[in-house]
Amino acid sequence: MKSSKAINWLLICVMCWATVGCKSVTMKEKKLSYLGDKDHLEHYKDEVTSIEYTEVAHCTPDEVKFTQEPRTIRDRKHDEIWDLSLTEALHLALKNNRVIRTDGSFMNSTEAITNQNASSVYDPAIQETGVLFGGRGVEAALSDFDANFTTSMLWGRNNEIVNSPFFGGTPGGNLTRETGAFRAGVSKQFATGGSFALRNDWDYSGTNASGQLFPSAYTGNVRGELRQPLWARSGTEYTRIAGPGGAGFSGVTGVSQGVSIARINNDITVADFELSVIDLLRDVETVYWQLYLDYHRYHTVVTARNSALESWRNAKLKLDIGGISGFKLVDEAQARDLLFQRRSDAATSLGDLYSREIRLRRLLGLSVNDGRVIRPVDEPVEAEFIPEWYGNLVEALTNRVEIRKQKWSIRSLELQHIAAQSLTNPQLDFVSSYQVNGFGDQLWGLGSDDDAANTNSGLRYGMERITQGDETGWTAGVELSMPIGFRSAKAQVRNYELRIAKSREQLAVLELEISHELAVAIQKVHSNYIAAREDFSRRKAARRRVELYEAEVDAGTSTLDPLLRAQSSLAEAEVAFYTSLVDYNLALLDLQYRKGTVLEYDNVYLSEGSWTPAAYRQAVRRAWARTYAIENPHLHSEPGEFAQSESYPRYIDVARPETRETEPSLKSKSSVEESEGPTEVPPAIEADSPQVKAPLENKTSQLPRANRLETELPDEFNLDFSNAFEEKPKFEQVQFLKEEPFAPTRRNSSEIPDFED
């Protein structure tokens, strides 16, 4: 009975609790009232993550804010012509490209510009001032040897009940302790791997406990500590490569945090920046000559369009009068078809020209449209240039920045390998310390030496006891620590050995790759020049063909179809000639690029910005001091010198045929003998008059022609093109930007076929 009542009461309690709980969940929130009047709700967010925009203090460049709309083929504006030379274009590119851009990255992604790895003029300075692991600059590496000062001062007070008289008080009484601690010290790291520290410590103690000589006293010391590695991590060589010793973060830092490695990293960064500048100059010159080609291509297309227009007019006139001898009805339709094709070609060519000008403006750091149209004013090289293989190979192996960068990487790995070998030894350190102790009722003062306890021992001032140096202490000994087996250290050494082997093999492959690149570049120089000469003869023959067919059509002995085909062939020959000429100049540029002499070729020299005048004065003072210093034959540099004292590269010689022994299996089977070539230039001959056995001559060779094989071409190809480039049209003849290129001639508009027709 009692149990059932208990159960009923328990059920009633549970139901009441559930009812209260439900009510608390469904209970309405209280209405809140606020002071003030607001029209709408603010600061309410129903989401955590969303797209937001930051506030950055940035001023949009004037080249973007004040630029005009881009130029299109529909524009009829007469913009000013800007005759831009190649030298001025290179100057503008170097001046306006603080973040270096490339032509290949255009219209692909802006990530190449905003990427943190994008090359810029700030990169050498960023590396020089780097502080992070793997990117430390020289200043950050030298900071490890800066003196480090630390100090601290703490006060304290403690009250407690004494439970035992052995703690210096009456049982049940109150024991009060006052404390103070002062710490100060200077530590310095040495290039030998050792460290020295000078410290001054003072402790204050005041208490009401019995049995004390002084109720308050100062205890302190001046202490000097010295630690010097004797085996692993010892010596200036290791310290300047890996940085000061210490096992902290060794798996992250490795042995690459020293001054020497930081210096090499700076040189590698400068090499990367130089490569970016070379690529920029190459792209600027390439786009410059491509724009030159676009101008001539457009000139050719416009000329072909005008010729097609004239041919259609003649055909239309003959059709209107009922036809003449040799005229067919299809001739007018064919002429109309060709006219529309040429008009389309002209529109496409002009659009390509405007697009190319935009690409050049981008590389030069100019606005999209400043009211001027860039027109290349320099003429491409027309003279034949015969490069000498061995001299160019020596220049390539000497001047290519990629080789210099790879050699710096190898030197860095070699130094790190030396430091890694040091870690395969036990860590044996010599440690020592010496200190002078002090004790006194007071810290310092100028009064009598009598203390409060009348000890007659001069214990009144603690500072004075230290200066007397009566209480001293010292320690000396060695510390040894080593992992059993040195597995990690030996694995690191092996890793560097493999990385050095890989880097050296990469250097060998790189040199081989450069030789192949140079060979192809030389081949292109020869082939593009020959192609330009042949295309010139083709153009001349195509002009003659057009003249003959025009005479036949006028005489009525031929139809219009051969003339239209001849005109098309002439337009193709004109474009092919200027394409070959530009390709020849681009081949010369590529030859300089493969040799690594683009900067010298363009008269560009890299140097750092100006320092403050005080820095130059200090440098001069130190230079004079070293100049008059006495040479010490016992001094040597650790690690050894890894940079040349000269400011120019040392040439790498290659074995020439006359200086090397030819292997029997490598002897040439050719019967052609080497010669220095003719000493006189043969007289000029007509371009379209085949001559028998006329040797190809170099009239403007800029390099020695030693070791060049003189060969003879077949009779039908032995032509002298000394006058090949005399009939080249000038830019002054291209008037398409001063008139409406697609506007009808000022005649009756009904005479011109429209697109709707």
TrEMBL record:
<dbReference type="GO" id="GO:0015562">
    <property type="term" value="F:efflux transmembrane transporter activity"/>
</dbReference>
<dbReference type="InterPro" id="IPR051906">
    <property type="entry name" value="TolC-like"/>
</dbReference>
<keyword id="KW-0998">Cell outer membrane</keyword>
<keyword id="KW-1134">Transmembrane beta strand</keyword>
<dbReference type="GO" id="GO:1990281">
    <property type="term" value="C:efflux pump complex"/>
</dbReference>
<feature type="coiled-coil region">
    <location>
        <begin position="486"/>
        <end position="513"/>
    </location>
</feature>
<feature type="signal peptide">
    <location>
        <begin position="1"/>
        <end position="18"/>
    </location>
</feature>
<dbReference type="GO" id="GO:0015288">
    <property type="term" value="F:porin activity"/>
</dbReference>
<keyword id="KW-0175">Coiled coil</keyword>
<keyword id="KW-0472">Membrane</keyword>
<keyword id="KW-0732">Signal</keyword>
<dbReference type="GO" id="GO:0009279">
    <property type="term" value="C:cell outer membrane"/>
</dbReference>
<feature type="region of interest" description="Disordered">
    <location>
        <begin position="657"/>
        <end position="711"/>
    </location>
</feature>
<keyword id="KW-0812">Transmembrane</keyword>
<feature type="compositionally biased region" description="Basic and acidic residues">
    <location>
        <begin position="657"/>
        <end position="672"/>
    </location>
</feature>
<protein>
    <submittedName>
        <fullName>Outer membrane efflux protein</fullName>
    </submittedName>
</protein>
